[in-house]
Structures are given as C-alpha cells and as structure tokens.
C-alpha cells in the first residue's frame, strides 16, 4: 500500500515537473538535492515528508497533494534591498495567447518557440487539449508543438479552464471557419469592470457570426453565405477585437480591410505569424490592415513571439522604485519609446544599446541600463493611448514611479472602470495616493515605504505594482494569493530574487 502511494505521488511530481518544462536536474537544484534523489522520488522509491512534498509543490508552483479545498500561493517580501545585475525580458504573454488561439486556423503542425510559461497560457492549453488538440513541450520545455485533430470536440471543452481566462473570446474568429454552431463559456480573467462583447460582435458579424448570450454561454451561429462587402470599421480600437477580426479575415476567401485596427505589439506579432501561414497582410503597424485571406490553411509553421514590453516596463519600474542599477536586456524598444521619453522628462538616468532584431525577424530590441535617479513629477497628467501612445497596461507602473518622484502627478486611467481604485492599495505601504474618481488618482511623492500585509488586488498590473512597492518598503511585507500575478508573469518573484530581491513564496498550512 505504501509503495503504491509513493508511486502515485512520484508520478504526480514527474508530471508537474514536465508540465513546467524542468529537467530532474533543475528540480534538484531548486530543492538543494541531487538528481538521483529526484529520480528515486519520481519512481516511488523514497519516503517523503509533508514538508518535502510542500517544498516540491512550491518549487513547481503546483499543489501536489491537496490538504485543504484551496491553498493559494503567497509572497513574503523583505524590502529595502538594492537590485543589481542584468535580466532578459521574456516572450509576450498577450502575443503567446493570441498565437495559441490562431493555431486553430491551421490544419498543419504549429510550433511556437519560447512561449510564455504562465497561468494564462496554461489555461488556454488546457482548453485546446480538452477539445482534441495535441500539445507537446519540446526540449527544455520552452517550445510548444501543437497538432490539430481532424475534427474538434467542442462539447468536451474544459469549461472551468475557459472561464478563468478572458482570452477564450478569441476563439470566435478562428472557430467561425470550422463550425456552423458552437458555444463558448463567458470569459473571465482580471476584474477590471465591465468588458462588453459588442465590439467583437460588430467586427465578426460581417463574416456571418451571430451570438446569443444565455445560460452562461455565448451561443454562436455562422451563416457561411455572408462575407464582408465593405471595409470593417472597428467601433473600439482594442487589441483582442483586432485579433479576432484578423483571424476571421485570415481564412475568408477574399480581401478584407480592417480600419481603426490596433497596431499594438501583440497584434503585430499575430500579423507576422499569419504571414507565415501564407496570409498576405498589408499595413502591419498601422490602423488600416488589408488581409488577403486563404480559405484553407494546412502548413507546418515555426514561429517565435517577440519579447513583452509590459514585462520590460515592470523590470524598469522595479529598478526605479528600489533605487537600483540594472540592465534590462531584449526590451522591444518600439513599444517603450513613449514611456522612456516620459521617464527622461521626469529625470531618469539610463542608457540604451544599439538595436537588434528579435527571433521573429521583425521586432526591434535594445538593452536598457537604468541607474538611481532623482525623479520629478511630470508637467502634465499621465494617461494611456492606443499604440503608439503610452501603453494602457504600463500606466499602473507610472503610479508607482510617480510615488518616488518629487511633486504631484495625476494618473488618468480612462480605459477601465475600476483599475485606478486598486492603485490606492499603495497607501497601505506609505504611499500618498488619492482617488479622485474611478478613473483618476493623484499621487504625491517622494514616499517612505513601509512594509505591511495586503491581499493581492484582482487586477494583474496593480498587483505587480504592489509587489514592487513591497520590495522598496522597509521591513517585511506579505502579498496574499498571487495567482493573478502568475497569470501574466513567468517566475517573476524568483527572477527578481536573482537580482537581489528577497522574496519567498509560501502556502498556508
């Protein structure tokens, strides 16, 4: 009996390690043990204490054995540490998710290189696998191979995984070419106020798609006789709306013009990927896209999404708030130029390298070295705009940066109904942040940060802002239930620790 239990636990540990993409040696290094010990554990040949099982679970960010209904991960931060060294920006979360959805267009094998290993990606992979698509991590677990079946089994969709991600809405564009009738669960994700499906419907109705929302599902019907007869004008210049329209246009037999399109980083990555599938797209990087669709796509494609500008901004903010000198390597400069221009106005001391090209052969990268700086508040309010303006997802980091600067800064988050409210959590750490209305906060600095315990905000970027402020705060802080951070960042706490931060992940016993 004991041998059987040890074998079952060993197999769970092996599967969790492989899902994370680690070798036995990597897990051994994380636990401070030997590869042979991991081999024995995975083959049920070694007794394990509950403490060791918990340590393995923390290392793999996976609950191996459930001792309670839920056991969320928390972070304990010993603040006031200066950072040093260099760190590489990893691949884009939003591009990775879009490319996973776009793989539904292809009857051939899709290989995505260096894809983000985050919870949002895991949820989409779970949904894809549940409807019959084969996935396999290659090599060291950084590359994902996707193999479609002859026929999708949409009735077997993993509804729980689908509801935990808003990205499932991007199944609409690809699926309307494969199914006449289908349903998708209502999308979840960050709590940022009401997100309407109307812009998606407006973009996809010219392709014959009609939706009815009942019983927790979007029920879709497709009229194959309908095709865009004139340019599609998006009523919202949204990233996912543009991506849905692009994926619908990719297999539309004809030429589709999309106006008021987003030209943001993940949209450009999707365009580059679609061209590898044989779809010709004119106007990449502009707000008017002309798509020459092909009704049948059956190619083996190999593609590497570019680096994430939002992660790059997160790392820059970490250096600024802790008064540190670090080098952020492989930063996609095209999508950070406005942010850097604003930081220059505020007094940031930094250098940038010459430009080089990302693995996708298109995106321009640089290395950025940030040094401790005396910042001052900008002359005007800080607000986001569609690309090439200041990125909407980078705005929360400027609330944190403004808290380190001398003077008052107004942050105007006009896109989301509630996100600005979460920025007031900085007051618990000593920040002077005044909520003016659901969209605007007034930040006054400089700040003397002090540690405390906070429940993680339910929105991704404000959650990371709180974590970075804790790194600057004197004393020990605790950030509880950080699943939302793991949705969008890969091993963020561990990677910051390599730079000198003192962050420990733990679970309640």
TrEMBL record:
Pfam families: EPSP_synthase, HTH_3. The keyword DNA-binding does not apply. One of its GO terms (molecular function) is UDP-N-acetylglucosamine 1-carboxyvinyltransferase activity. GO terms for biological process: cell division; cell wall organization; peptidoglycan biosynthetic process; regulation of cell shape; UDP-N-acetylgalactosamine biosynthetic process. Cell wall formation. Adds enolpyruvyl to UDP-N-acetylglucosamine. One of its GO terms (cellular component) is cytoplasm. Belongs to the EPSP synthase family. MurA subfamily. It is found in: Cytoplasm. SUPFAM superfamilies: EPT/RTPC-like, lambda repressor-like DNA-binding domains. It comes from Jiangella alba. It is an enzyme of class 2 (transferase). It catalyses: phosphoenolpyruvate + UDP-N-acetyl-alpha-D-glucosamine = UDP-N-acetyl-3-O-(1-carboxyvinyl)-alpha-D-glucosamine + phosphate. Keywords: Cell cycle, Cell division, Cell shape, Cell wall biogenesis/degradation, Cytoplasm, Peptidoglycan synthesis, Transferase. Its EC number is 2.5.1.7. Pathway: Cell wall biogenesis; peptidoglycan biosynthesis. PROSITE patterns: HTH_CROC1. The keyword Cell division applies. Residues 13-67 form the HTH cro/C1-type domain. This is UDP-N-acetylglucosamine 1-carboxyvinyltransferase.
């Amino acid at each position: 009996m004991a041998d059987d239990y040890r074998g079952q636990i060993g197999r769970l540990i092996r599967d969790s390690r492989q899902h994370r993409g680690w070798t036995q040696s990597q897990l051994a290094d994380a636990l401070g043990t030997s590869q042979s010990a991991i081999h024995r554990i995975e083959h049920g040949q070694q007794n394990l204490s509950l403490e060791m099982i918990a340590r393995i679970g923390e290392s793999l960010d996976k609950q191996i054995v459930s001792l309670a209904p839920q056991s969320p991960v928390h972070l304990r931060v010993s603040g006031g540490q200066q950072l040093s060294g260099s760190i590489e920006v990893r691949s884009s979360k939003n591009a990775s998710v879009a490319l996973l959805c776009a793989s539904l267009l292809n009857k051939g094998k899709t290989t995505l290189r260096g894809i983000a290993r985050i919870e949002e990606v895991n949820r989409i992979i779970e949904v894809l696998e549940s409807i019959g698509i084969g996935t396999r991590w290659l090599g060291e677990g950084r590359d994902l191979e996707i193999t479609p079946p002859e026929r999708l089994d949409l009735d077997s969709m993993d509804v729980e995984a689908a509801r935990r991600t808003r990205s499932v809405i991007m199944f609409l564009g690809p699926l309307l070419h494969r199914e006449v009738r289908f349903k998708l669960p209502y999308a979840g994700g960050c709590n940022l106020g009401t997100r309407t499906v109307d812009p998606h419907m407006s973009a996809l109705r010219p392709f014959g798609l009609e939706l009815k929302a009942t019983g927790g599902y979007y029920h879709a019907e497709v009229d194959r006789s309908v095709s865009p007869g004139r340019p599609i004008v998006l009523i919202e210049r949204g990233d996912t709306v543009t991506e849905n329209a692009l994926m619908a246009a990719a297999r539309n037999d004809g030429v589709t013009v999309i106006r008021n399109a987003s030209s943001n980083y993940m949209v450009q990555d999707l365009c580059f990927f679609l061209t590898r599938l044989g779809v010709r797209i004119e106007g990449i990087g502009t707000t008017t896209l002309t798509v020459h669709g092909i009704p049948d796509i059956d190619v083996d494609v190999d593609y590497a999404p570019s680096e994430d500008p939002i992660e790059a901004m997160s790392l820059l903010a970490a250096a600024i708030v802790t008064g540190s000198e670090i080098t952020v390597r492989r930063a996609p400069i095209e999508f950070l130029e406005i942010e850097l221009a604003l930081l220059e106005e505020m007094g940031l001391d930094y250098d940038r390298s010459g430009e080089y090209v990302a693995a996708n052969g298109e995106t321009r990268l640089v290395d950025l070295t940030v040094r401790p700086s005396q910042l001052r508040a900008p002359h005007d309010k800080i607000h986001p705009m569609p690309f090439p303006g200041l990125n909407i997802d980078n705005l929360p980091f400027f609330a944190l940066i403004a808290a380190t600067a001398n003077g008052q800064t107004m942050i105007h988050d006009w896109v989301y109904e509630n996100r600005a409210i979460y920025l007031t959590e900085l007051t618990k750490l000593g920040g002077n942040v005044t909520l003016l209305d659901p969209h605007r906060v007034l930040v006054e600095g400089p700040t003397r940060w002090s540690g405390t315990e906070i429940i993680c905000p339910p929105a991704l970027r404000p959650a990371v802002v709180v974590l970075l402020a804790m790194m600057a705060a004197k004393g020990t802080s605790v950030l509880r239930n950080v699943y939302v951070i793991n949705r969008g960042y890969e091993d963020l706490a561990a990677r910051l620790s390599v730079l000198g931060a003192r962050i420990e992940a733990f679970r309640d016993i």
